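Please, structure for the following, as tokens.
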Amino acid sequence: MNVRHVLVLPDRDAAEEVAQEAVDRFGLPVEPQLVRDALAGEDDAEDAQWLVVVEDPRERLDAGALDDLAAEYEGWLEAP
């Protein structure tokens, strides 16, 4: 089973930093994917959140540690 963890961040800079920190901290073999997620009903680019999608094919990453990482950048781990 291939598990994906989705971290939600407030802006692109935070998302880029979290993606790099995740690689460094957890030794990820593949850099996480960044995805812009506009809030429902909002057209303003300022209201976009950024998602960091972390692939976890071996289910070895600790969800709590990922949530803590996102929280350091004012984000959170999306519940599955």
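The longest strand covers residues 48-56. Strands lie at 3-9, 33-38, 48-56, 76-77.
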